[in-house]
Design goal:
3-stranded mixed β-sheet, 138 residues, 2 helices, 33% helix, Immunoglobulin-like, alpha/beta
Amino acid sequence: MKADSHNGTQGSAARRRGPRLFASAAVAALLLVAAAGYVLLGSDADDARTGETVYLNIPANTSDLLDQGREVTEIPDQLTGKVGDTLVIRNRDRATQVVAGYPISSGQTLKIPLNRAGNYETSCSAHRDDSIRMVISE
């Protein structure tokens, strides 16, 4: 009889650990995405912004076109900028889009400082192949 109650306790403990493991995995994934964005776009938030603004506008019909397997011609395959510029992403679509690991809700505008020179292939859910090339020069 003692063994039965012990097994019941282990089953309950396992069921309680499941949601915690899922939450831990989700937090770890978010931290990984944030770290990738940090490395990709830089971390020097205190620098005075003297550069220009690079815009990425996601139009209202983006998710509909992508659902149809079509390309969104208003969105370029490559963005170019210089260190010190700011990337401004405006999502006019009804769906949340993810660019460089940052989720951007419908109607939201996100500003990302470009702090590191390089050629990057990064995530962009507004493209049919889920990626966009970023070229950041000195």
